[in-house]
């Protein structure tokens, strides 16, 4: 299709897409399934919105994950981009093998009592409060505590300031001090890695200790890869599951009948398993897949994605595609089948999927049980969403108990 024949998205949908991207996604799927934004001096960015296209391109080797292929493009903090999300085979395969054993479902399942214990303790603290922020009081500390436990971050570093250091590196460039955020992050990684080298082993999974040893003893990972991987895991192990709990609880609070259905069946029910999948689909924590660029020209819907163009695969849109899901805008906790793409697809499929599912399966019934009577403190349309590139998550989820 010639560029001039492609319609432009209506400005009201563009303006409200941070708060509610779904009308914008529906417009893209219908009118411009391969939509490109070109800005002077910047690489072209394609947005791909239909389920079938997103799924096949997630696994398409013509799309590279190596940012070095786009001149001048730096997707994350300097010196910390050599991790599995930004690599192609063979480096990707090597790095993925090193981390994936720590996240095997049978290993993760052993963490259930620990997750439930941390979750209960956090809820004990807010039990008598009339106002609760489900993000700051629960989802953020729970998910960060868990990824720190898996990595083997010593308890004295596992605190709000460490979390802030990490999150500042993905804050929008306009509102933060990016140089300072990067300096703080590098200092944190120095302390963490030096601690492992001097024999600081907190026990448990201690994935970071294992990675340091793998690099130092058998040389399968260099220093930049080690630092980048530690950063990646701390960030994605936390930000994603925090959004699952926040977006999922918001969906449940806005769909009382579905929430009551789940509360009545509770933990260990088949409904809980399908409910976690449906909450992942309905308001996907990773809205857009991570960086990809065309390593060779690709034709899509009569248009040509040129070599070097960036391609954004809109997972949140694919998961609401009516060609794939019946009644896609409806929350149906019993939905089966539910082949959503919330964890991606193909060689980069989420390493932490078993952990994320378990965190959801522990958190949702517990929250319904202990905070079930709570209500949103403001209308859903006024809640603050974090202005993030890839993720979709709330800044705060204020609740009141009456
Ligand atoms: C609800 C929570 C989560 C969601 C929705 C999610 C989603 C995703 C998605 C969509 C991808 C693929 C990105 C792409 O292909 O562009 C991915 C990859 C990844 N995820 Fe998750 N994730 C979650 C939790 C976690 C957790 C808890 C960890 C643990 C550290 C984790 C670690 C990773 C890693 C390391 C990759 C990169 C895999 C690779 O490139 O080979 N994720 N995740």
UniProtKB/TrEMBL annotation:
Example of a GO MF term: heme binding
InterPro entries cross-referenced by the UniProt entry: Cyt_P450, Cyt_P450_B, Cyt_P450_CS, Cyt_P450_sf
Any Pfam family hit: p450
Keywords for this protein: Heme, Iron, Metal-binding, Monooxygenase, Oxidoreductase
Family indicated by similarity: Belongs to the cytochrome P450 family.
Official protein name in the record: Cytochrome P450
Species whose genome carries this gene: Streptomyces marianii
Species lineage: Bacteria, Bacillati, Actinomycetota, Actinomycetes, Kitasatosporales
């Amino acid at each position: 299709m010639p560029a001039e024949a492609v319609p432009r998205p209506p400005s009201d949908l563009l303006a409200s897409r941070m708060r509610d991207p779904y009308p914008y996604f529906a417009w893209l799927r219908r009118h411009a399934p391969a939509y490109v934004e070109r800005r002077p001096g910047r690489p072209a960015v394609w947005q791909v919105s239909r389920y079938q296209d997103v799924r096949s391109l997630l696994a398409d080797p013509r799309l590279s994950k190596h940012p070095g292929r786009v001149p001048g493009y730096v997707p994350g903090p300097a010196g910390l981009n050599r991790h599995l999300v930004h690599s192609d085979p063979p480096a990707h395969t090597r790095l993925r093998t090193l981390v994936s054993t720590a996240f095997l479902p049978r290993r993760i399942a052993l963490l259930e009592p620990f997750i439930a214990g941390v979750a209960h303790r956090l809820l004990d603290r807010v039990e008598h409060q009339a106002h609760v922020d489900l993000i700051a009081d629960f989802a953020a500390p729970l998910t960060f505590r868990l990824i720190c436990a898996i990595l083997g971050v010593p308890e004295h570093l596992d605190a709000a300031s460490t979390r802030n250091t990490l999150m500042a590196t993905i804050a929008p460039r306009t509102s933060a001090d990016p140089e300072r955020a990067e300096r703080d992050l590098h200092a944190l990684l120095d302390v963490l890695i030096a601690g492992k080298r001097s024999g600081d082993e907190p026990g448990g999974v201690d994935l970071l200790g294992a990675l340091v040893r793998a690099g130092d003893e058998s040389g399968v990972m260099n220093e930049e890869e080690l630092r980048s991987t530690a950063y990646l895991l701390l960030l994605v192990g936390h930000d994603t599951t925090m959004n699952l709990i926040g977006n999922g609880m918001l969906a449940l609070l806005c769909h009382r009948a579905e929430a009551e259905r789940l509360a009545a069946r509770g933990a260990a029910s088949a409904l809980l398993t399908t409910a976690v999948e449906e909450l992942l689909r309905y308001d996907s924590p990773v809205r857009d897949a991570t960086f990809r660029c065309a390593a060779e020209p690709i034709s899509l819907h009569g248009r040509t994605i040129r070599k070097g163009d960036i391609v954004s695969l809109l997972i949140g849109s694919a998961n609401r595609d009516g060609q794939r899901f019946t009644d896609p805008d409806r929350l149906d906790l019993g939905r089966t089948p539910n082949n959503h793409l919330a964890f991606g697809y193909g060689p980069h499929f989420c390493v932490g999927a078993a952990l994320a599912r378990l965190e959801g399966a522990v958190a949702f019934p517990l929250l319904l049980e202990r905070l079930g009577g709570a209500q949103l403190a403001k209308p859903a349309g006024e809640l603050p969403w974090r202005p993030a590139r890839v993720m979709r998550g709330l800044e705060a989820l204020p609740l009141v108990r009456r």
